[in-house]
Amino acid sequence: MPERKIKNSTMREETFVRISQRSQNHPKRRDERGQGQDSKSSLEMKCPRCFRVLSAETFRDIHVMRCTVCRGLWLDAPKLDEMENTVFPGDQVKGTLVFKTDRSALLCPICLQFMNAFNYRDYDLRLDFCADHGYWLDKDEEARVLQLMKEEAKAWTTKHDTEEKWPEMLSKLKDPTLWKRLISMLH
To answer: Which of 154, 148, 125 is nearest to 137 (CA)?
Structure first.
């Protein structure tokens, strides 16, 4: 048990050091008078995972910020929904996005506050998010999100088709010749 305390303590210290370093380098850092300092780097966002500068790119016609080192992806708040819509536009049938939130160890690249983590649509996929700014997806999690949405779309289509065919199936059950055939098979 003491080994765990040391590990957690070390992790906390490393996080504190990272927070301190990031807040010192934050483009809108407050000076002694409390004034914000705009700098040339005010548009630079840093990766919550490895603290490298994120690069703008287009992914499925959506503007995102990607880390060129760890390949993580930052999506502004509405962009996750836009990304899902590229494979499954049925917002009303997608279900709840956020399940079971808890504190993340990652910092939002915009406000530098700790993000939260959640189970994406109740799947075994943990995503990090800042309630005010957006979502962080680690390497290849965007592919997993899209795969899950494709599976949801397929399941919804199958369910919808089955429900549409159900009245026809019920009407066939009312056909007396069907019952006669069934009874003759049993005898």
So the answer is: 125
Domain ranges of the chain: 1-44, 46-186
Vertex 30 angle, CA 129 and 42, to 5°: 60
pLDDT along the chain (187 residues), means of 10: 39 44 43 38 80 94 94 92 82 64 94 93 88 94 89 75 67 75 82
Q: Which residues lie below 8 Å from residue 99, measured CB to CB, with a gap of 6+?
A: 118, 119, 120, 121, 122
Task: Give the list of residues 6+ apart from residue 26 with CB closer than 8 angstroms, or none.
Answer: 112
Label residue 51 exposed, middle or buried (CB < 10 Å: 0-12, 13-18, 19+): middle
Question: Residues 6 or more apart from 23 whose CB is under 8 A from it?
Answer: 29, 112
User: Residues 6 or more apart from 93 whose CB is under 8 A from it?
Assistant: 156
Contact 100, 144 (CB under 8 A): no
Give pTM, 2 decimals. 0.62
